[in-house]
Amino acid sequence: MLNVSSDYPQRGTGLTLFSELPKSVDVYEVGPRDGLQNELRALTTQAKAQLINALVVSGLKRIEVSSFVSPRWIPQLADAEGLFALIGQPAGVTFSALVPNLKGLERAKAVDLREAAVFMSVTESHSKRNINKTVAEALRTVAEVSEAALKAGMRVRCYLSTVWGCPYEGKVPVESVVALCKQLKGLGLYQLSLGDTIGVGTPKHVAQVLEALRADFRAEELALHMHDTRGTALANVLVGLSMGVTTFDSSIGGLGGCPYAPGAAGNLATEDLVYMLEGIGVDCGVSLSKLVEAGEQAQALIGRKLSGKYLQAALGERERTSPRS
Ligand code: HMG
Ligand code: MG
């Protein structure tokens, strides 16, 4: 017979891990931006507004809805101004958008954007392909856009892409990530979102990066933006939680990737994240059943099955248990 105490020795975590996690976290939804930027078929502005409304109904309070980037680079999001006119500003919800340069910021100001997301990469090749700038040029742009956005009264967060690996350069040294994060300090950014752009991060590597940043950043100043390309996103989130991180980016149905990162299929699905958070007793204020409704709507609008596992399980179960006519 199994002797629990001797066959399962305590290894320092066990159930105690769960009592030490943050009690509540923010889910930062990126589907309408990070997801839709990658779809071959662009949705109508009306359809995007419908999807965003379903996300708001689910209880999500932070939603990145579009990008003020060049419409030649990302035609799927060329309707950012029209979208902002349709979605308005629901109470208690922050709609944010990517802002790549001062031209984008002027467009953002015109729609009264409250939160700007600036972005850059750790690696030169991804930076060049994504925004046509070297890392040093991108850093200067991030600094000037952040300063102007803060002056305009916006909150500013910054994405750092290719933190755990680059589609063109492979492994990324932790020291490069830390050096860049230190240069971003002092720009008035309220949060740095660390991106596993191509989904190669593993729990140990995530812990190494967070540990290396601990001396310079409080856990609340960091967010994790995980892609689930290789199935490690939730394990990485759990490591982030255990190290005090309280903001996690995710995308409805697992929509998305990065158009300038081949193989970057699939952000962590919001429903998968929320299911895990609920199960381990970490509050995020989002309704799973409403998320499934939003995911179903996203599938119908996009016209294909999405990769989110909880979504597919919930829809499959509903189909199996609903009475046949
Ligand atoms: P560029 O071509 O080098 O820019 O693009 P430029 O300054 O030479 O301008 C070229 C033309 O674009 C000009 O027009 C500008 O006016 C226009 P023209 O005179 O030729 O008619 N232009 C703009 N138009 C509208 N809005 C603007 C804007 N800027 C210039 N803001 C640029 C440089 C940065 C604009 C371009 O490379 C770009 O828009 N890149 C965006 C790429 C992108 O959105 N990638 C995906 C997001 S990143 C991501 O997904 C990763 C993330 O999720 C985290 C992770 O997973 O790691 C965030
Ligand atoms: Mg992304």
The set of bound ligands, ions and cofactors reads: 3-hydroxy-3-methylglutaryl-coenzyme A, magnesium ion
Beta strands, count: 8
CATH homolog superfamily: Aldolase class I
Could you spell the SSE succession in H and E letters?
Answer: HHEHHEHEHEHHEHEHEHEHHH
SSE class: alpha/beta
Helix content range of the residues, please?
40-55%
Supply the number of structural domains. Answer: 1
Low-confidence stretches: none
Spatial sequence of strands, sheet with the most strands: 1-2-3-4-5-6-7-8
Radius of gyration: 20 Å
What best-fitting shape do the alpha-carbon axes yield?
A: globular
* Oligomeric state as shown: single chain
The termini sit apart by 50 Å
What proportion strand?
5-15%
SS element count, helices = 14
How would you characterize the largest beta sheet? 8 strands, parallel, barrel
The CATH class is Alpha Beta
Q: Can you walk through the features of this model?
A:
The chain starts with a helix and ends with a helix. The chain has an eight-stranded parallel beta barrel, surrounded by seven helices. It has 325 residues and is α/β, with parallel strands linked by helices. α10 packs parallel to α11. The chain is globular and about 60 Å long. The protein has one domain (21-301, 308-316): Aldolase class I (TIM Barrel). It has helices at residues 4-7, 16-19, 31-35, 45-57, 80-87, 102-110, 124-131, 135-151, 174-184, 203-213, 233-242, 270-279, 288-302, 309-321, and strands at residues 26-29, 62-67, 94-98, 115-121, 155-161, 191-196, 222-226, 247-250. The structure holds 3-hydroxy-3-methylglutaryl-coenzyme A and magnesium ion. Magnesium ion binds at residues 34, 195, 225, 258, 267.
